[in-house]
Design brief:
The complex is a heterodimer.
Chain A lengths: L1 H20 L13 H4 L8 H15 L3 E2 L1 H9 L2 E3 L2 E3 L24 E2 L14 H11 L3 E4 L8 H12 L26
Antiparallel strand pairs in A: 2-3
Chain B lengths: L1 E5 L2 H6 L3 H4 L2 E2 L3 H8 L1
The chains are: A mainly alpha, B alpha+beta.
């Protein structure tokens, strides 16, 4: 142990001596690259990285809320809304759409017409199925609401958006410069 | 496909007026009045 420490301290001292004596940078400890290079700034980004960055910015910058006025306009008439056409979609399975009123307290008072009632406990594992259903129906915009005001509905909306808003960019590019593995990376590009 | 959250929730929708409650199923005014009070 003692030999070990003394050997490395000797090596350090030798390299420091070399660094002092010559103008060359020392071999050890290795000089860190500049911060700009370490973070990937200033380097030439590939086309794929640029596209991914743009997609991430677009995905995080657009609004994640819809006011009730906008939704009312979209529901009541086929109109152009945010560049996409929003239309009233009749409910998918009318007979199974709504459980008995006595079972669910959150349904007291009514629901917005055409909305699908999903229990919040099983919403997270059914998100992939929901995406397939919505995609088959040709929907362009999903509006979430919950009868319970304190429910973290934003989390579900964010998960849905981050996973399925653009399947090509499932591997998300963070603006900080780190490429983070998304939760759905193993499914590949779709 | 975009994913947005309805601002003010279903409560804001139900208490906004008749033009909004016209687009509700099984609307019960008493439920919303009692939750407000």
């Amino acid at each position: 142990m003692l030999l070990h420490q003394s050997f490395y301290s000797f090596a350090l001292r030798r390299n420091q001596r070399l660094a002092l004596s010559t103008s060359k940078p020392p071999r050890w400890p290795l000089p860190r690259r500049p911060a700009a290079l370490r973070q990937g700034l200033g380097t030439q980004a590939t086309r794929h990285q640029k596209v991914r960055r743009r997609a991430c910015l677009a995905r995080t910058s657009y609004t994640c809320f819809a006011t009730k006025e906008t939704v009312l306009v979209g529901i009541s008439s086929s109109s152009t809304y945010g560049g996409t056409t929003m239309r009233y979609i009749p409910p998918l399975f009318p007979s199974f759409r709504r459980p008995p009123m006595s079972l669910t307290r959150s349904l007291q008072g009514g629901t917005i017409r055409g909305s699908i009632n999903l229990p919040a406990q099983s919403l997270w594992p059914t998100i992939p199925t929901l995406y397939e259903v919505f995609k088959a129906a040709g929907l362009r915009r999903i509006v979430w609401y919950c009868g319970e005001p304190s429910h973290p509905l934003l989390v579900f909306a964010w998960c849905f958006r981050s996973a399925y808003s653009s399947r090509f960019f499932a591997r998300s590019w963070q603006p900080g410069g780190e490429l983070v593995r998304g939760p759905y990376r193993k499914q590949g590009r779709r | 496909m975009e994913s947005v959250v309805l601002l003010e929730g279903i409560k804001g929708w139900a208490t906004a007026g008749s033009e909004y409650t016209r687009w509700m199923d099984e609307y019960d005014q008493r439920a919303w009045v009692t939750t407000d009070a």
